[in-house]
Amino acid sequence: MKKKIIILGLLLFAGGFIFKLITDGNKVESDSIGATFQFDENLAIITNKEAKLDININNSEVIKVELKLNDSVLQKWDSPKNKIYHVLKTKGLTLGTKKLTIIATLSDNTTENDERLVRILNDKKPETWRLDVTGEFPHRDSSYTQGLEFYNETLFEGTGDPGSNGQTLVAQVDKSTGKLVRKMGMDASHFGEGITVLRDTLYQLTWKNQKCLTYDAKSLTVLPKEHKYNGEGWGLCNDGKYLIMSNGTEQLVFRDPTTFEIVKTIEACTNEGPITQLNELEYIDGLIYANVYTTDLIAVINPKSGAVIALINAGEISTKYRGRGEVLNGIAYNKTENQLFITGKYWNKLLAVNVKKTI
Q: Which of 10, 35, 127, 187 is the most exposed place for a label (fewest CB within 10 A)?
């Protein structure tokens, strides 16, 4: 079972690094490495801003310097002397943490590296949205809800198994009664996580088994194809082309549904930092809605940049409807009805809600 940690403030900085917003005064670092950044802190930069990166050349034997952002080369210098610099332009870059690397080549063709992290933040504070409950439907209070989704007006739900008793399942659910119409279970060695349906195939993540199971969405029969991935599986949705997966961090990974290969990765960020513990996901009208685990928050995320454009606080709803259940988790959008539904782990209600957008 996932370890539950009470999040204070929610906008957590991941990785244990100290970030400093760039100012005019950068601290000079003295080092024996051939070329080093002139600043010794990791950096945070607001998106669409530029930052001057000063670099010291510490050794006369340096014949070439290369500056990289992750795997992309930003600039090269031949026979650099004393000090050089690069103006980092963030326009067009996705938000989140990236690695800056200086590679200094010496006259004997050996190389020396210096690294920093840079975090690109959103330039706008998230809006505050709210939910109004417009309808109530029965929900099995024995379901540890991990995934919730409508497909062709059929409601599907995937559950976890915190007691390791073989309670993980994926099921077709009668929305009006909450009863399971058809189900497929898993043994106690599997802890089910997020689900989504794309082109008649239902995909179900597992927490620590590092595999995604597939089913025929019409019959719920298990398909022979299993997909492998590294790390944990949490939430899952799709944009009609790619699967979108969360892993408990601020990362959202886009995967090819046929090969499960990674297409791209974004990081959910506000103007202050990343939002971690992204859990159950739903793709609605070009935006990703994500439950933030252990909280009553839903983050609304731009899938192109990772910008958190809004935070929905469902605390009042959770207080009223949770009962003896646990955390809010489960978002499903019925396109035909243009209706959003939410629930939680062990809740006895599935709620129809409307989103009220406020600034």
A: 187
* Cβ contact 249:276 at 8 Å: yes
Q: Specify the DSSP element, H or E, that contains 67.
A: strand 62-69
pLDDT in tens, 279-309: 999 999 999 999 999 999 999 999 999 999 9
* Res 9 pLDDT > 90: no
DSSP 104-126: EEETTS-EEEEEEEEEEE-SSPP
- Nearest Cα neighbor of 17 from 55, 43, 51, 47 is 43
Per-residue pLDDT tens over the stretch 185-209: 999 999 999 999 999 999 999 999 9
Element (DSSP H or E) covering residue 319: helix 315-321
- pLDDT value of residue 40: 86
pLDDT reported for residue 23: 41
- 102, 151, 123, 142: which is closest to 21 by C-alpha? 123
Tell me how far apart the alpha carbons of residues 277 and 162 are, in angstroms, rounded to a whole number. Answer: 18
Which of these, 33, 38, 36, 35, lies nearest to 23 by C-alpha position?
Answer: 38
Region(s) of the chain under CATH 2.120.10.30: 127-357
Q: What class is the 14-121 domain?
A: mainly beta
Q: Give the alpha-carbon dihedral of 252, 308, 162, 238, to 10 degrees.
A: -50
| 34 pLDDT above the threshold of 60 | yes
315: helix, strand or coil: helix
Q: What is the side-by-side order of every strand in the sheet holding 50-57?
A: 35-37, 50-57, 83-89
* CATH class of the domain at 127-357: mainly beta
pLDDT of residue 359: 58
Q: Which of 16-20, 32-36, 124-128, 342-346 has the lowest mean pLDDT?
A: 16-20
What was the pLDDT predicted at 81?
93
**Is 126 exposed, middle or buried (CB count within 10 Å of its CB: 0-12, 13-18, 19+)?**
buried
* Region of residue 202 (phi > 0: left; psi between -120 and 50: alpha; otherwise: beta): beta
